[in-house]
Amino acid sequence: MDLHTMTQSLVTLAEDNMAFFSSQGPGETARRLTGVFAGIREQALGLEPALGRLLSVAHLFDLDTETPANGYRSLVHTARCCLAHLLHKSRYVASNRRSIFFRTSHNLAELEAYLAALTQLRALAYYAQRLLTTNQPGRLFFEGDERVIADFLREYVTLHKGCFYGRCLGFQFTPAIRPFLQTISIGLVSFGEHYKRNETGISVTASSLFTGGRFAIDPELRGAEFERIIQNLDVHFWKAFWNITEIQVLSSLANMASTTVRVSRLLSLPPVAFEMPLTSDPELTVTISPPLAHTGPGPVLVRLISYDLREGQDSKELSSFVRSEGPRSLELRLRPQQAPRSRALVVHIHGGGFVAQTSKSHEPYLKSWAQELGAPILSIDYSLAPEAPFPRALEECFYAYCWAVKHCALLGSTGERICLAGDSAGGNLCFTVSLRAAAYGVRVPDGIMAAYPATMLQSTASPSRLLSLMDPLLPLSVLSKCVSAYAGAETEDHPDSDQKALGVMGLVQRDTALLLRDLRLGASSWLNSFLELGGQKSHLKSVSKTEPMRRSVSEAALTQPEGPLGTNSLKSLKLHDLGLRNSSDTTDTPELSLSAETLGPSAPSTINFLLGSEDGSEMSEAPEELNNKDRVRGVGAAFPEGFHPRRCSQGAMWMPLYSAPIVKNPFMSPLLAPDSMLQTLPPVHIVACALDPMLDDSVMFARRLRGLGQPVTLRVVEDLPHGFLSLAALCRETRQAAALCVERIRLILNLPGPPV
């Protein structure tokens, strides 16, 4: 059914139900039912033209005609889902309103909930129209004066969200997902109560997930509490909640239900530098230094998973790296005969918003991958923010990747074909690890499979990001807190928030973390100022070899002079500077051309990871195309006269609206990388979700690669949420989506297809 027909059918049914209930007397229930159908009629008629306009231009933002996907399409699809549900419910009411079995209260509550959702979706449609008029042609992300986007986000975060977390929870997703989302939401609000009361501290047990009876029977209460939690609680809460799957009971249950493998070993890679040959000249080598940023040298944990026991996997050399996990370490059971080494190797980087989870959380689907691909998988347990912000995770992943390439024989592989695979934050790290490998001149992977990756970490708006208003897994405030933690500027509590929600120990932990953060940032600022002053005097001294902490990539980069990758060039980098089409003139593009001499053992890295700041001067830059009058009017002008969306009852939420310069770093936001860097990437295969707030990250990244002539594919799965890989065993749709990821990896590894 097309949009116009659906709207007219809904309006007709609403008017019929209005006439019926208005004739039922002056009762309160009849009055509310009359009012709700009047509201449905009003919102449907107001929403139709806005959706029509979005749909008329949505094709301009697709990757190609075979991949009709972008945030505008997703927003229209979500609104159609809401309209379809109201149409179904209105028909039910019209058919059963005279029955003695008609549950008036239940149907009224559901109609009111979906009317609230429709109202908020209409607001999102107007916001999307504003993006259309403000963004550069063909761009999905806002670019320009950061004050404009700050106003936009400040207005957006005040919208009411609770209606999407109660009766309407997950209405946009496939029906098989909704019971899971309801369980997660009940667990979340129950966990939040434990966290608030400080009954068990941050380390709670699995029973916390199953003590939310009143939230299960009262959807409105659950929605209001869910909204309070996402508005007020900090990144430590989300880190603790997402790590629930790591506790012994749940992880044991997950492993019992997953594929049985012969090898699942946790390895600890010692922080020892080693040499890697350059791809341009294998006789020359480059030193791969251990991770150093923020916390100094330390081991990197990785998990080796293999369906068969292969040659090298039971060697004494590999056993020397094994880290005991108690009973789990006994999963390696020797067989009389070993399988030969596989010609393929998969290096996996898990997701979790840079702040949560480990390879253990992702082990169930990795075991299935190991069986289906017939190749060993090495999953990297990188250090997590906020304790280990950027670039620590990147340094660890790069170090582990290089170690795997060098020692693939120990892992049961000949290393003929190597694939980097990751989801969400892990997809981001897959791209940046490959970019760094190219910068060092060492072997890049033969391909990358990234599932729903985050490629733009800058606080900005796009049509798909608007979906975070209703997404129970990726609310905007949570995204912002995770990115802030990864950037090393953890979000502080809003002064009006309820500090008692943290409890006494929670406040102590928070204040201690803030103190350490301030000390770290203060020291980093002093070091930056000192080095900049030295640079102006043109007599910077070389870093002493007795100070290994200073030789991390993040800090050594501060000593490099401004040049092709200098701080000024990257700090002001924006998408419209990079372009979507392949440009033959690369003189205006920041280059990353590192010679073998530059990459010698004495200089393991000259990559600029930390971008200097000039008192926020980048915030004052505004493109000439933007009309100052539009900026002064604010986003409220996007709404027609008489329309007022519902506002959040939890009070103002504090979130970082101006992006720190570091989030524009291409090693943090690969979408902002210059053409010369992106051209070093291997073939990229992206699997995205149509209803994911991160969809536009995938679409724009694929469009940039396609414009540069780089091999890239984009497959978009319908009606599934962000993180579907962790739900692979839940239903048929998630299994099919997970199988699509395996198919992409199989293409990279040049493996034969599964038997029919």
UniProtKB/TrEMBL annotation:
Active site residues according to the UniProt entry: S424
GO CC term (a single one): caveola
Region (Disordered) location: 538-571, 581-600
Pathway: Lipid metabolism; Glycerolipid metabolism; triacylglycerol degradation
Gene3D superfamilies, sorted: alpha/beta hydrolase
Record field: catalytic activity: a diacylglycerol + H2O = a monoacylglycerol + a fatty acid + H(+); 2,3-di-(9Z)-octadecenoyl-sn-glycerol + H2O = 2-(9Z-octadecenoyl)-glycerol + (9Z)-octadecenoate + H(+); 1,2-di-(9Z-octadecenoyl)-glycerol + H2O = (9Z-octadecenoyl)-glycerol + (9Z)-octadecenoate + H(+); cholesteryl (9Z-octadecenoate) + H2O = cholesterol + (9Z)-octadecenoate + H(+)
Domain Alpha/beta hydrolase fold-3: 346-495, 657-725
E.C. code: 3.1.1.23, 3.1.1.79
Short name of one Pfam family: Abhydrolase_3
Domain Hormone-sensitive lipase N-terminal: 7-314
Domain of life: Eukaryota
Any one Gene Ontology BP term: triglyceride catabolic process
Coiled coil: none
Keywords noted in UniProt: Cell membrane, Cholesterol metabolism, Cytoplasm, Hydrolase, Lipid degradation, Lipid droplet, Lipid metabolism, Membrane, Phosphoprotein, Steroid metabolism, Sterol metabolism
GO molecular function list: diacylglycerol lipase activity; monoacylglycerol lipase activity; retinyl-palmitate esterase activity; sterol ester esterase activity; triacylglycerol lipase activity
Biased composition (Polar residues): 581-596
Compartments, as annotated in UniProt: Cell membrane; Cytoplasm, Cytosol; Lipid droplet; Membrane, Caveola
The protein's enzyme class: hydrolase
Similarity section: Belongs to the 'GDXG' lipolytic enzyme family.
Assembly with partners or alone: Monomer and homodimer. Interacts with CAVIN1 in the adipocyte cytoplasm. Interacts with PLIN5.
PANTHER family noted in UniProt: HORMONE-SENSITIVE LIPASE (PTHR23025:SF3), TRIACYLGLYCEROL LIPASE (PTHR23025)
The protein's name: Hormone-sensitive lipase
Species in which this protein is naturally found: Bos indicus (Zebu)
Gene behind the chain: LIPE
